[in-house]
Write a sequence for this structure.
């Protein structure tokens, strides 16, 4: 399994065409999973999506491939790991972080886009435990928040 210690993520950068195309292939799934994730968290810990409270599901998922704001990419023996910061255009300073995995389709070497398949690994949710034991939850990040390795 790829971990932060076993692969080297690139520096955050503007997405190149290959990243935009990969994101385009899974964008509808990202939208569906983001809405589902919010509904699930709203039942038990609505703080995750507090920054977009009152925003409709349609507006939350109104992003397009052109809203892929920045990416970090790493290669491993298993395939390509793409971390993306996606802007929610209907909310000021609101971004979701996604992790995408790309690998060669069976019977190919994965050297071209049509020979690769991409799947959504996860949408990042963060739980921070403060010194006083209080917990802070979020799934919506700001433009200035760093895009780091995540497993969740």
């Amino acid at each position: 399994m790829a971990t932060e210690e076993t692969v080297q993520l690139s520096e955050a950068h503007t997405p190149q065409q290959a990243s935009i195309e990969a994101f385009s292939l899974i964008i509808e799934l990202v939208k569906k999973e983001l809405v589902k994730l919010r509904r699930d968290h709203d039942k038990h810990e609505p703080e995750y999506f507090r920054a977009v409270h009152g925003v409709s599901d349609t507006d939350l998922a109104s992003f397009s491939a052109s809203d892929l704001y920045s990416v970090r990419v790493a290669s491993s023996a298993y395939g390509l790991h793409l971390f993306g910061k996606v802007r929610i255009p209907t909310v000021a300073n609101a971004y979701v972080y996604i992790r995408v995995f790309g690998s060669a389709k069976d019977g190919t070497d994965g050297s071209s886009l049509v020979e690769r398949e991409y799947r959504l690994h996860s949408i990042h949710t963060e739980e921070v435990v403060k010194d006083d034991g209080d917990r802070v939850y979020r799934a919506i990040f700001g433009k200035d928040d760093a895009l780091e390795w995540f497993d969740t």
Notes: The longest strand covers residues 95-104. The chain has one domain: 17-138. The chain has a mean pLDDT of 93. Residues 17-138 form one domain.
